[in-house]
Amino acid sequence: MRKFFNFLGLAAIILSTTLFSCDKDDTKDSEINKCNVTNPIEELAWLNEEIENVIEDEYSYYNMASYQGQTVFFYGNCHPAINYVSIVRNCTGDSLDLTINVYDELTEITTIWKHENTECNFAD
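^ that's the sequence the OP posted. Answer follows.
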């Protein structure tokens, strides 16, 4: 009987160590940073160029999200009188789809750039 309890105790220790050694943050970081860059705005030339094109627009912003297991980016504009088309792009800047077509499938949406005096109302 004593061997059984020793075995049970050892199994509990191994199980606890295994379960607690998994860190959710490591998975989340790798999901968010699949482009293999620290700062996508500075390190992805195409994204930097896109932001430079709208840098003076107080209504413009760029979001990063997850879509079908990959990191994606898309433009946004909160001007009440403007009608625009936004495209979801992957890490290399390739167009994947119109944002309106896949918005419900986007997860982990994060605003990565906005004008310093933005007119948009972001819930931080």
